[in-house]
Design brief:
Helices cover about 10% and strands about 40% of the residues. The chain is mainly beta and about 90 residues long. Bound molecules: zinc ion (ZN).
Length: about 90
Amino acid sequence: MKYPKEVRTYCPKCKTHTLHKAKLFTKGSARPMAIGTRKHNRSLYGHGGKRAGTKTVKKQGKRQKIVLECSQCKKKHQRVIGTRTRKKLEMS
Ligand SMILES: [Zn+2]
């Protein structure tokens, strides 16, 4: 799926439509000492947790997220693209 590099869309800060730069959202690295990460790691112990094995269910793909940056106020906001895609978004 292709997505334009620049889109004219609504900016919640300027309260009008302005030109935005579009970029693919990238996840930051997880903090190993954060409470949520520790809680999750604890849940993986024992038989009640997730165990390694072969997966039978094929994934349907992910909903891609993009970051839009306003050209006037430089405010960033995110947008989720509604359809699920197996391939990464191409910025054209
Ligand atoms: Zn703006």
